[in-house]
Please model this.
Amino acid sequence: MDAALPLAGIRVIDLTTFLSGPMASHTLGELGADVVKVEPPAGDPTRGGPAAPCSPFWAALHRDRRSVVLDLKTELGRGVLLDLAAGADVLLENFRPGVTARLGITASDLRSRNPRLVYCSLTGYGASGPAAGQPATDGPIQAFAGALELTGAPVPLTVGDISGAAHAVQGILAALYARERTGEGCHLELSLAECLLQWLAVTDRGGTLAPPTTMVLTTADGQRLLIQTPMHMRAKFLALVGEVPGCAAFAADPRWATVDGQREALDEFVAGCAKALSTRAAGEWLTALAGAGIPAATVRTIDAALGDLVAFGAAATLDVPGLGAVRIVRSPFVFDGHRRTETTVPPALGEHTASVLAVDLGYDEARLAMLRASGAFG
Model:
């Protein structure tokens, strides 16, 4: 067994779209699971259409999986899904509440045939309650959960979706572990709003990391450094930059400048620190700051980080048809020194429909032809 693929042999059926569900199945795939993405005849909406060229978003999120097209609104298409679920370990869905019941693919429908199935449902606001029926995208989820208290506007990173994905993976792994002891799967339910609130409850709401504790300053060679000096690091930082306006107050409490009437004092302190940083190059400052135990880093773009094979050994280039060479991040998981090194390009829409049904389910050509003719594949 490949140490880098602890989920090898686990079959995941992915019915999800947009980000939360696909990010969860992507992570499971990085851990070695066999992910079969089931798409409607028109394709996942985030493809941009069946003939749309692959996007960097799609390449990053939908690698390492197989694509099967099924029209779940047809009886035969639904029957194929039931067969797939009967041999699966995990099924992920993020339909709006009520859709799986209308389609006849609820947890009860599928687990009645496969009690070992871990069926994971991701919703925006939960399966019931006053907000359950509301359409859910990341911005409204952030607003509902309280994230806008921090910034006044939605965080550009889609934290609602990503927090849901992170919690889904944790829950699925826990359910698979429990199944080893009980022999039974379960129906795991998660709402993006609740998952995000878990993170927000432990976030910095008191402004303790606001300037001047956190500052972005420019060095002599034009590089920008983000420097963070919480708690005991304040005095060490002042020892490096020397006497600047407000340094005594900052040493006592970095939040002094955030109270009413102290804006001018904050500006003077930051300006003094900026003047000090402008006297030396970024490399010199980073060495000095690290020597003093002060957290700091160069401000970079995402593309620059993707290109850094020293800091991010998992970054690599993938040749994606229709898109060319794309920088991607491979698995961040390292097990006993082993990291997954292989990755495959995202599949074309329905690329593996025939092979999955023939090899995995044992359908013969006559049955495949009947399903095609009946519209089960759209």
